[in-house]
Design brief:
It contains 13 helices and 21 strands. The strands form five sheets. Strands 12, 13, 14, 15, 16, 17, 18 and 19 form an eight-stranded mixed beta sheet that branches. Strands 1-2-11-10-9 form a five-stranded mixed beta sheet, covered by helices on one side. The protein is globular and about 65 Å long.
Length: about 500
């Protein structure tokens, strides 16, 4: 990395990491307290069935609940269902619905609400042309059991033993149509208001069926940038700051703040659009994997506090992660030049990386990647855009050459890899591999866990063979918590859970 690039990266790193999410509490915290959560991106969608942005999910995680729900350890537990049965034929889920649950509008939740919500998420309602939740498009019918009015039967078009983690999708009142602007769920917090450019306000739901929140109000404040958030943290008006940079954490007064961390289980990827030249050439993609120095990127972006990746899966996924693939790509600029020459680009080429300006860890990575690719003759232009533009151009329309982003998922291996199916609406990489598609269809039909692990490992090997992207790191997620706050925990997922937060007098 040259001196100019280091200076640029140093300037960029003056702000915090990831999507720019931080939390805070007023100085008069205590009973009746308000916690302020800062975000640097404008909320896009508050509908649990159409939401795509991780930053939006952080807000509505506190508002909506599904039949099942992950906890802070990544364990999937019953929530609005008390349990489920999976048919021997693997094509029918039967959920027992929890009684005594109320929506934020005061209406008691019934199995009819569950039928409506799952039908809506699966695209089965009249007038829907597709499933808003792509992973639930396998559902063919949702109905109340004739034998037990408190049970809901979900019928599938094909076998799937891997669907439970997707039943975390939010349950809403039957017929409700205003989720995008006026969310109504069953969670510990209810929606109060959204003022564009200013904030989203939630308040404690006193009718919550589970353990009630300790704070009365949560305000997600929309901030101009992370520098403004850092000033507020220093001034003591912010109590919790998730996704913090390691270098900044070292500067925190540890008499006033404590540091919490966890794996993020959210791979940072230099994504190569497989349908755009020259990235449709497997040797070009391989060359870039050797041209990029992952250690340097992690050093610049996270002060070395990240785990190098070779594949789309983090080591946090345990046995589903394939350790044998570690270190497949070493940093080797000369080999990268040779591969580029073999691919027909002896003098390199010019391309663009479109990166969201709010995600400074990705801007930092783009700066470092550009410096490293220049050494092998590739001129990488950096195009910074706002979050809404990134979602529209890159994610939705796939109109880009390359990008840098962290890809989040549930703590489930199928959720991690299913987005790489060629027909997945979430496959904005434009990746396609017939064997991967086949394996992704086989996994849900398999009961033998050991066989499933084999299939997952084979998928990862296929993706490495294709050099489909440049996987950089699983960044460690660091949270700075004020000594006035108890109960906050950094999750191994992109979640800000305010239900357990307590302000200590």
């Amino acid at each position: 990395m040259n001196n100019l690039s280091r200076k640029i990266a140093a300037v960029i790193m003056s702000a915090a990491v990831f999507a720019g999410v931080f939390c805070g509490c007023s100085k008069n915290a205590g009973a009746g307290s308000t916690v302020t959560v800062g975000i640097t991106q404008e909320p896009n969608v508050l509908d649990p069935h159409t939401v795509t942005a991780a930053g939006d999910r952080e807000i509505i995680f506190n508002v909506y609940e599904g039949l099942y729900k992950f906890d802070s350890d990544g364990v999937l537990n019953p929530c609005l269902a008390t349990g489920y049965e999976l048919s021997d034929s693997l094509d029918e889920y039967i959920f027992t619905i929890r009684k005594g649950v109320k929506f934020h509008n005061g209406k008691e939740m019934t199995p009819e609400d569950v039928v409506f919500s799952l039908s809506r998420a699966a695209g089965l309602l009249s007038g829907q042309d597709k499933a808003p939740v792509d992973d639930l498009k396998v559902i063919s019918d949702v109905k109340i059991s004739q034998d037990d009015a408190n049970k809901v039967i979900v019928k599938l078009k094909e076998k799937s033993s891997e669907l439970l983690s997707y039943f975390t999708v939010g349950i809403i009142p039957a017929g409700y149509e205003d989720c995008k602007t006026k969310p109504v769920g069953t969670g510990p917090f209810k929606f109060d208001s959204y003022n564009p450019g200013q904030n989203v306000t939630l308040s404690k739901f006193d009718g919550y069926w589970g353990t009630k929140a300790n704070i009365d109000k949560a305000v997600f404040k929309i901030c101009a940038d992370m520098d403004a958030g850092m000033v507020e943290l220093t001034n003591g008006s912010i109590d919790i700051f998730p996704h913090f940079t390691t270098d900044r954490a070292k500067q925190i007064d540890q008499t006033k703040f404590k540091i919490d961390s966890n794996v993020s289980n959210m791979p940072q990827i230099f994504i190569l659009n497989d349908k755009v030249k020259p990235f449709d050439n497997v040797k070009v993609r391989e060359a870039l994997n050797y041209a990029v120095n992952r250690k340097d990127i992690i050093s610049v972006c996270a002060d070395g506090n990240g785990v190098e990746l070779t594949t789309a899966m983090s080591p946090a996924m345990g046995k589903y992660y394939d350790k044998s693939l570690d270190g497949t790509y070493s940093y080797d600029p000369e080999k990268a030049k040779q591969l580029l020459s073999e691919a027909g680009f002896p003098n390199g080429f010019e391309t663009t990386v479109t990166v969201c300006s709010s995600y400074l860890i990705h801007v930092n990575a783009a700066v470092e990647i550009a410096a490293e690719l220049k050494k092998v003759g590739v001129n990488l232009k950096i195009n910074q855009v706002d979050w809404a533009t990134w979602l529209d151009q890159v994610y939705s329309n796939r109109n880009y050459d390359t990008t840098v982003i962290c890809v989040d998922s549930a703590f489930a291996p199928y959720d991690v890899l299913s987005r790489y199916a060629s027909d997945s609406s979430k496959n904005f990489f434009n990746y396609s591999n017939a064997r991967v598609d086949e394996l992704l269809k086989l996994i849900p039909t398999e009961r033998d866990e050991a066989k499933k692990v084999e299939y997952y490992h084979e998928i990862l090997k296929e993706m490495v063979k294709d050099n489909n992207n440049v996987y950089i790191q699983d960044p460690t997620s660091i949270t700075v918590v004020s000594s006035r706050i108890e109960g906050y925990k950094t999750w191994p997922m992109y979640v800000v859970d305010l239900s357990t937060v307590k302000v200590v007098k």
